[in-house]
Structures are given as C-alpha cells and as structure tokens.
Amino acid sequence: MEKCEKGKYNCALCPYRGCYHNEMDTVKMPNCPTLNEQERLNEILSKYEGECLKIAKVSAEVAVGRYGGKSRIEETIEFIRKMDYKKVGLVFCYALREEARLFANLVDVTLGTKTVLSPTSDEDLSEEEKNKVRFKLESLMCKMGSVEREKLGLTGFDSASVPMCNPIAQALFINEQETKLNIILGLCVGHDVLFNMFAKSPATVLAVKDRLYNHDPVKGFYDENGYCYKTLSEKRPMALKNKITK
Fold first, then answer.
1. Using CA atoms, how far apart are residues 137 and 110, in angstroms rounded to an integer?
2. Mean pLDDT across the stretch 37-61?
3. What distance, in Å, lies between the first and last C-alpha atoms of the chain?
C-alpha cells in the first residue's frame, strides 16, 4: 500500500498570516515557507522575467486599481487589454452559454473584435474594416462534436441521451488557433483538468459551474444547510468557530 504522508505546507490552517502583514515574528507554524525557505524564495524571484514579469506587473495593476470596485468580468477585459493580447480563446460549458454570448458581445464592443454574427445595422463592417480588426476571440462550447457517451463506455447516466463534454477537443482546436490566453467559463470539475492538460496556452477562470449555488461555489461554505457546514458541524465543529479575522 502506498504510504500517505501529511502535507508539508499548511498555509490554509495558519492563524497568523504573518506573510500578509509582514509580521513574521508572530508566526509559529511549522514548515512555514516564508520563514524556512527564504533562500529558495529569493531564487524564484529570477523567474519573474520577460512575459512572466509583464503578467505579474499587469496583474498587480488590475488588482490594485479600484480595488474591490471591479467585477471579475471587468478585470478580465482589462487584463487582456493591458497585456495587448491579439487572440484569446473562450472555452465554455453549455450551462453557461448565455454568459458566453454576453461575454463575446462585451469583448466585441470593448476590444473591437467585430465578430458578432448578426450585428445591428450601425455595426455592419466592410471587408476593409474587417481586415483592420486587431483582436480575435475564438470560442468553443463543451459539446463540440456531439460525441455519444457510449463511445467512451460512459453508460448508466440519467443524461445518457446528451452528448458528452469534449474538453480535449476544445483544447486541441484552441491550440490550432494559437491563442495567447484561454478563458475558462463553467467547465465541469475534471473537464477543466483535461482542458488544461492538453491546452498549450495559459488559462484564467472567468467563472466556475456550481448548479446548486448559481455558479458561486463560495456560498457553499456559508450555507448552514449545505454539505460543508453540516460535515464540519458533525466532524470538526471548531473549524466553524475559529474564524480567521486578521
């Protein structure tokens, strides 16, 4: 049997948060990376160069500017603009198809993609104008290919008549378009893993799917009738009482 060892790092359980407040003298957690790995952390700083340094800089600008006053949607648009990406991929789930449509339209009017299939009369473009488009959005839905689940031996599902999701196809088709950034919108748990395994470009998550909490999974931590609260109440009630405030 494979030996299972305890995790080395436990930042999620640290009550001190000294690295955030720059008060490391208060930290008493064993194996704290900030306390014990300074030499290695200093070496890692050299990784922030070229494209990585630009992403770090732009991310800081987007996060700090109007802190708390921008939605994730607005931050994503701003990040794309500041990074000056020319081609971005949007891979989305059928369950969030309306949100994908709205995002595509939003990108269209804010970044000038002009890719809306049925533009209003004042958005009609000549061929010359279309050739001037500098930014492109490539979008692919999860059900692409309409592949029957049975082809992978996936049987016994209530939704067996619905084609399977195809995240590997989404990744490979997006790769062919040479996107510089991919945006994940609502892919299922596991399907997002497969997409990232096969995608060549880095990805950011615009939203995740959560059918129970209207695509806001964090609510699951605070629902007193939900899985998280009930489980911790039964097995580890102190976790609900010892809230981190600092």
1. 12
2. 95
3. 41
Residue 132 shares a structural domain with residue 201: yes
Interatomic CA distance for residues 199 and 201, integer angstroms: 6
Note whether 224 and 205 are same-domain residues: no
Whether residue 72 contacts residue 165, with contact meaning beta carbons closer than 8 Å, is answered with no
Structural domain that includes position 42: 26-69
* Single-letter code of the amino acid located at 39: E
Select the more confidently predicted residue: 128 or 107.
107
Domain count, the chain: 3
Same domain, 102 and 48: no
Query: If you average pLDDT over residues 166-188, what whole number do you get?
Result: 97
3-state helix, strand, coil in the chain (%, to 5): 45, 10, 45
The two tokens of residue 218 are 């964090």
Tens digit of pLDDT for each residue in 92-120? 999 999 999 999 989 988 887 665 544 54
Note whether 92 and 117 are same-domain residues: yes
pTM (whole model) above 0.85: yes
In which residue are the tokens 């061929």 written?
127
Tell me, yes or no, whether 192 and 132 share the same domain: yes
